[in-house]
Amino acid sequence: MGLYNLIEIDVNIDSILNKIDSLKETNYENNDKRIIYFTLHSKKLIDLIIDSMKLTKSSEEILLEESIVSASLLLDEVYNDYLQKKLIISLLFFISSITIMITLVKISFTTTKLKNELLAYKYAVEHSDNSVVLTDANKKILYVNENFETNTGYLKDDILGKDPKVLSSGLNLRATYDELNEKLLSGKKWEGELINKRKDGSLFYEKVSIVPIFVNEKIENYLAIKLDITKYIKQREELKESSIVFENTEEGILITDANQRIISVNKAFEKISGYTKEELIGEKPSLLKSFKHDRFFYKKMWLSIQEKGYWKGKIYDLIKDGSIIPTWLNITAVKDENGKVIKYISMHTNLQEIIDSQEKADYLAYHDSLTNLPNRIKLEDHLSHVIAVASRDHLTMSILFIDLDRFKIINDTLGHQVGDRLLQNVSKRIRKVLRDTDMVARMGGDEFIVVLETARNKKAAAYVCQKILDTLKESIKIGEHTLNTSASIGVAMFPDNGKTITTLIKNADTAMYHAKSLGKNNYQYYNEELSINIHDQLKIEQALKQAISGDELYLNYQAQYDLRTKEVISFEALVRWDSKKIGFTPPNIFIPVAEDTGMIVEIGDFIFEKACSDFKKFKQINKKLQYIAINISTIQFRDKHFVSKIKEIIKKIDILPSQIELEITERYIMEFNETNMLILDELRALGFRMSIDDFGTGYSSMNYLTKLPIDIIKVDKSFVDGIPKDNNNMQISKAIIALSKSLGYRTVAEGIETKEQEEILLSLNCNIGQGYFFSKPLDYDNTIEFLNKKKFKIATT
Predict the structure, then answer these.
(1) Over the stretch 159-188, which tens digit does the pLDDT of each residue have?
(2) What is the architecture of the domain spanning 556-789?
(3) Which residue of 207, 351, 458, 756 could cross-link 326, Cys pair, CB 3.0 to 4.6 Å?
(4) Cis omega (within 30 of 0) on the bond before 495?
């Protein structure tokens, strides 16, 4: 007899007691009937008590049970005697009544105690934190408690009479069920973990214990006790994942207790420090102290940890081999629920590798990989210095724009290998005829720029031009080919032909095209008559004045993709100008003019407000969009109302600062003064995202980067273009991405045009991609259409 029978007995006892009690109120025709009913109901009551005591009996209740059995026998005699000896019924009734009364007193005491204990058991089971399931021998559910209903979603009425398999998820191994059935059928307990399914279809994990219940050596019921361990399973998986990350991350991780005793390190830290885990456990991090920092350094460090809960910065560590290395250290205090520090976690990045990599990347970033000449970046850096000196000392200097004649024909007919060797030979010849104070740089293709720092007049510039023409006229032997080449050269003088890098190069380029038009193999000086074209600065300046008021400026948007998920996460806003006077003018033509004249402030305000307004509409279509990237000119930072204006705009449009990324070109960063840095800090504090655009084309130092409040570094398109064929560009891109990651920034690669470039950049841990491979820049209407398609789209044009 199992738990289910015990509950049934409890109900029947209550019923019989109520019937006996009602005998006192019932009006029978004679005493004979009263005696019969009293005797029969009392007999049933005693039988039920005996049955219940078989389930609940303790050693001290044995005598009580014997007394109850005696009363039962006496009642049998009373009833039989009544049938045979009616004459003496009164006497027997008197005697039996006395006995029954005494017995019932004992029974009353026993049933009350039994009932109270049973109620306690029922309450405990019903309100248990575990699910309780009782089945019959055929595994049909007889009883479930409240926890079962809450955890599974099945009510008692839904589940009673059904097989527990209704909870099966189909995810448990067949071997698990085989083991379960084998143990239960052999009368043994089974314990294990199961993945089950709730009524709503959701999955949950349970720790299950099932025991068979025997009656007369035969299985009558199965009792299952279940504990929901879903939370613990998830925590276990998270711990496992954390452990994998801990051991495989590139950053060194060191964990100490509250007393700064090392309790754990990962493999990366072992590699950085040179010590094994066994050598470090129990030691203090001061083992790595290099003595390059004074006590005030450490005092400031610990003050930050105590007040803010963390410290990060550059520190020098003494590693096992005795060398001292620069490390980027990030220490965080871990506290318990009462705010007490229980451990410290520190992350270490070996900056020496980054510094070495940056030095190599710096050379690659400033030099052409084919000719080893300075590239455009290095040229502009050098020119800015030369122009500054010439302007200060009121001196004249010259630049030459050189373009090889007929190079395209040679390259196309004889192949790129011959073309490359020709460019290498030409570079050496030009370098050979210049003085040490002069610079020659390769602009790309077959174009070169020469900076003549000490050429104070046209005659001095003409002398160098002729030497270059003469040396290039000589035949060049490449393999089996004898090549004859020449060049066209344009000359621009500072300050007469321009006072900025952009203007000087543009005017020298104009003069070079004039030389080509005159039959090639000659040089020409720039003069104003050569600049009568639609891109003349004065015409652009005049046309720009009505660009905004005349509704000539508009924005295109180029999608930025998460390289891992292939989802569009943002757009970059790109300004375009279609002038009614001079026609479509590219940004690289009109933006410098706008900056020189200060009109970029008004144009920048238009771009910011329009981009924010459009992005709000874009986000209504695609909720996953994170932000809009907007380019900011350094000239705008000179506007004292810059911050207040953009705050007013985002308030009017109702857009969050975190949904806006402000892009600043790297080459402008070094021009920042203390006021500019304060503006950056203020913008970052307001919640704006900050990024460095065209990274690698300027000359940011490692120290400067760590001070900037930025989130994203954008790899310039010029480096991405060379992937995968140009190893230098590959190495530069890799170094920039590694640097960005080590500083905790995300990386965007611009100008991705092929699947191969995308895959390589993803393998280098670049986060975000942008370029024609994903989507070309689109106007507003086409951007809306693009978003409504809601699918990954690779541009073919």
Answers:
(1) 999 999 999 888 888 888 889 999 988 889
(2) Alpha-Beta Barrel (3.20)
(3) 351
(4) yes
